[in-house]
Each structure stands twice: as C-alpha cells, then as structure tokens.
TrEMBL record:
Transmembrane segments: none annotated. It comes from Corynebacterium coyleae. PROSITE patterns: ALDEHYDE_DEHYDR_GLU (PS00687). The keyword Iron does not apply. The active site is at E258. This is Succinate-semialdehyde dehydrogenase (NADP(+)).
C-alpha cells in the first residue's frame, strides 16, 4: 500500500521491506541508497549476484510463455490499469524520484508524465503495430505471404539514475505489451523508483515474474543480464554502451543503446531572443543539466550575440535553486558528490585554460550540499575538456559564429549526435533541423517537444546510440519477424510435368509481366 505523500526522511520501514521483497535477489550483502535531500540513507537494497540474475531469467522465461499466450487485449488492459495507478499515485511517485535524485519537482513530474504517455500510447497502438500483415507473395495470386510479429523472449533492461522512474518502465512497456518478459537492473543510486513501478505493475495485474528487478552493481548484475537476455535495452553512458555492444555483438542479439550527448543549440539571427530566453535556459539547466538531451553548447550568430548573451544570462540568473518535495524552485541538486566534483573539475579546467565565467561556476552550499550554480561560459579555449566531452551537469558554453552554416558545421563536428535545439524563424529553423546530425532536432524548445512526440521514433546517431524508443520502432524492435508464405495451385518450380528448360523463360516472363502490370512491389 503506497502512502499518499512521503517526507524528507528515510523511506518508512514497511515500504522499504515491501519494495525489497519485489526484487529477485536472495538477500546477502546490501547497498545503501543515499538521498541528496537527507543526511541518513534512504534505505538499503540487496547487492545482486550472478545467481540472482540466473534465477530472474529462469522465472522470467517460464512466465513469459504464459504471458505471450494471453490475448493482446488482456495485455493492454494491464497497462490501461497501470496508467490509472500511476495517475492516482503521481504525487508519491514524484516524491520517491525527488528523494532519490534531489531533482526539482517539475523534472520529477516529467517522469510521471513520460510513463503515462508511454502506457497510453502503446496500449492504444499495440494492435496496429503487432497485427499480422498480409504482404504481396512471390508470385501474384499463387503465393500468399504474411508477416507475423513474435516476442523475442526475455528483454534485459539496464537503466541510469538520472530519470529513474521513466527509464525504469517507459522502454519496458512496449516490450511487455508485445509479449516479452523483462529483467531490469536499475542504477544502484536509484533502485526504489524502479521497485515502486514493479509494485504498481503487479497491482495492475501483471504477473509478478514477467517483470523481474535485480538490484546490484553494473558490472556484475548488468553484465550478467547482457550475457543472458534475448534483447538488450540499455540507457547510460557511451563508454558502457560500447562495452555492452561487444557482449551483445558476440551473442548476435538485438540492442538498443540510448547513450550520451553533447547537444548543441543553434541561434539564428532572425530570432526574438527576449521571447525565447527562458526556454533556452530551461533547455540547458532542467534537472540541473543531468539530462541526456539537454544543451551543453550554444552557437549564436554574431548579429545577435550580444543581445542573446544578455537575455540568456538574465534568464539563467533568474532560475531559482532549492531543495525539498515542493514546487517552489526551478533547479534542484546534483545526485552525489562524485557528480559535483565532476562538474567542478570541468569548469576549473576550462577556466584555467582561459574560459570566461559569464555566470555561475561554483557550488551553492548555501542551498544544499550538492547544488551547483547554473553556469554559462564564454570565450572557451580550444583545449578545454568540456568543449567536446559531456559534463552532464548545469554547464553550457556560448560561442559566436559568423553564419548559420558555421553553426551547423560546429554542431556536426563531434562524434555525438543525440539531440539538437534550433531557434530561428520557422523556415530557417526547419532547414537547419534537416541538416544537423542528431537523432532529434527540436525547434523553439530544448528537447521536450521531440521527446513528448510519442509517435515519432527517438534516439541517437553516431556515438549517441543505436535503435530507437517511441513510435512503431519502439515496440517492433522487441519482436522477431516471421515470414510465412503459402504456395497455392502450382509449385514455385511450375507443374511437375513441365520440361525443366521452360522454367527460366516462364519465370522471367512472369516477372516481366508482373512488373509491367505492377502486380509485384
Ligand atoms: P553508466 O553507463 O555508468 O550507467 C548506466 C547503467 O549501466 C547503470 O545501471 C549502471 O549500473 C550500469 N552499468 C555500468 N557499468 C556497466 C557494465 N560494465 N555492464 C553493465 N551495466 C553497467 O551511465 P551514468 O554515467 O550513470 O549515466 C549517465 C549517462 O547516461 C550520460 O552519459 C547520459 O547522457 C546517459 N543517458 C542517456 C540517455 C538517453 O536516452 N540517450 C538517458 C539518460 C542518460
């Protein structure tokens, strides 16, 4: 039973034990889960072993067969019920996310909205995406062909800490509705968001063994999942994504990798910077910049550079910092000390090499122990580490460019290609968006417009990933395609009595005629 709201204190003992009971782990060592909002640990979860992962797959494989045999209507009904439960428990879900991450309430609520979006979208569209399709056969009238979608089996899911609720389930929803089971490993910093999702899934009617959660270390538990699953859904850093890519490559299984980015914003000269300045700041500093699609570099046309910098700095400085389970501030905490040090190190390196701090640049211990001021850097030297590397914190640099073409070239120059943001008049903006090398290009906004457009597949190009979430692709990737064809009336080789030498001329004439009459695709 979930409480209505939580407070800034460790999770209540009964809730902790209910949630831990939902893991597949067998006790043993535990991992202490810290909270940026309180001094004591939020709770503990088991540190999983390879045996736990074995057990999760054993159970998931048995459960998956029965789950896949249930009608699609039955499976989608579970996710309609899940949608209602997430909606009903939205406040406590946002509380758990905030307690685990220290993020602001808007960012926590974005996670709730994302889960609702995915549950609704895939429950509503699964029948279309998974329907058996009639396809043109090899020979018109004589061959009937069908395309069938079969669940791959057990999907492994490894997720990071920055969006622990939405990344625990949004990608798993289409996998589950398609008839798969899932073995999930949340990040050890944020396991409770994933476990509370499991609680709601079970309450919604999902057989408990269909969604297994094994808590524990990335290398041990995550590695073991990659060694056993039939498809791997990974969200995290490019470095880990490449490692896992080697494992799944060796095993020849499907892989979706949603990885890091160094997302660029392009500001063209025909933009009203006053009007968009706050949206631009939100594009960089939402969730304190700990967001894969947020902006870390801005290329601004020289004609409006000064106006832009003035308006953007003002908006950045207007962002309020805060902590706690309330709506009263714009930007929350970083997740932990490692993250704080990482951000400070990047800023110090840039400044030591000659970058100018336009605003921010330091921690904000007056707000909280892990808060860092939203930071704008200018005059960035070529050798600053953050020029090309992802900070994953509230730091952006601004660079003057002589033309839109130069901005596009700079945006495309890095190995990453996750998201780009474009501020320009509509005609110019769509033109720029078509030319940037990124899996998404968001116009007049940072990332929310593309992320929230559920019907369009989303993901990264180049070193930002492979595979897509959302849209039809976000579901069909979890299926194998079976091609079933029936030959009728006469064999593909012609009538038995036909002399063999007629086969070639007959078939080529049949294909030529089919082409002329457009009987074949
Ligand atoms: P990370 O790769 O270190 O960890 C992500 C997950 O992988 C965690 O659950 C971790 O325990 C696990 N893991 C770590 N090493 C592993 C290994 N050797 N084998 C198997 N699993 C392993 O990522 P992070 O630094 O914690 O997360 C931030 C990164 O994630 C950033 O680069 C960010 O851009 C990226 N990210 C991408 C998206 C996206 O949708 N593209 C979304 C969120 C975060």
């Amino acid at each position: 039973m979930l409480p209505k709201r939580l407070r800034e204190q460790p999770l209540p003992a009964h809730l902790q034990s209910e949630l831990v009971a939902l893991t597949t782990n067998h006790g043993g060592e535990v991992i202490s889960v810290a909270s940026p909002l309180i001094d004591e640990p939020l709770g503990t979860v088991p540190a999983g072993t390879t045996d736990d992962v074995d057990e999760a797959f054993r159970r998931a494989r048995v459960a998956q067969r029965a789950w896949a045999e249930r009608s699609l209507a039955d499976r989608t009904a579970v996710f309609d019920a899940f949608h209602s439960l997430v909606y009903r428990h939205r406040d406590v879900l946002a509380d758990i996310v905030q307690l685990e991450t220290g993020k602001d309430r808007t960012a926590a609520f974005d996670e709730v909205l994302d889960v609702l979006n995915n549950a609704r979208y895939y429950a509503r569209n699964a029948a279309t995406f998974l329907a058996e399709k009639r396809r043109p056969g090899a020979l018109p009238l004589l061959t009937r062909a069908r395309e069938q979608r079969i669940p791959v089996g057990v999907v492994g899911q490894i997720s990071p800490w920055n969006y622990p609720l939405s990344l625990a389930i949004s990608d798993a929803i289409p996998a589950l509705i398609a008839g798969n089971a899932v073995v999930a490993k949340p990040d050890s910093k944020t396991p409770f968001s994933c476990l509370v999702v499991k609680q709601l899934l079970v309450e919604a009617g999902l057989p408990a063994d269909v969604f297994q959660v094994v808590t524990g270390s990335g290398q041990k538990v995550g590695g073991a999942i990659a060694e056993r699953c039939d498809y791997l859904m990974f969200t995290g850093s490019t470095a880990t994504g490449k490692k896992l890519g080697r494992t799944v490559g060796e095993r020849l299984i499907g892989y979706s990798a949603e990885l890091g980015g160094k997302n660029a914003m392009i500001v063209a000269p025909d933009v009203d910077v006053q009007k968009h300045a706050r949206t631009m700041a939100i594009a960089c500093f939402s969730n304190a910049g700990q967001l894969c699609v947020s902006i870390e570099r801005i290329y601004v046309h020289t004609d409006i550079y000064d106006d832009f910098l003035h308006a953007f700095t003002h908006s950045t400085e207007s962002l309020t910092l805060g902590k706690g389970l309330n709506w009263d501030y714009d930007m929350g905490s970083l997740i932990d000390d490692t993250q704080l040090k990482r951000v400070q190190t990047y800023v110090d390196d840039a400044v030591a090499k000659g970058a100018r701090v336009v605003t921010g640049g330091t921690p904000r211990p007056d707000v909280g122990p892990l808060h860092f001021a939203p930071t704008v850097l200018a005059d960035l030297p070529a050798d600053a580490n953050l020029r090309e590397e992802e900070v994953f914190g509230p730091v952006v640099y601004v660079q003057r460019v002589g033309s839109v073409d130069e901005a596009i070239d700079l945006a495309n120059a890095l190995p990453y290609g996750l998201n780009a943001s474009v501020f320009a008049s509509p005609h110019t903006a769509w033109e720029i968006a078509r030319r940037v090398e990124a899996g998404s290009a968001t116009i007049n906004d940072g990332y929310a417009a593309t992320w929230g457009s559920m019907a369009t597949p989303l993901g990264g190009v180049k070193e930002s990933g492979m595979g897509r979430r959302h849209g039809r692709d976000g579901m069909t990737k979890y299926t194998e395609v079976k091609n079933i064809a029936q030959q009728r009336i006469v064999s593909m080789r012609g009538p038995h009595a036909m002399p063999k030498r007629l086969y070639g001329p007959l078939m080529t004439s049949a294909l030529a005629l089919s082409k002329r009459l457009r009987l074949l695709p």
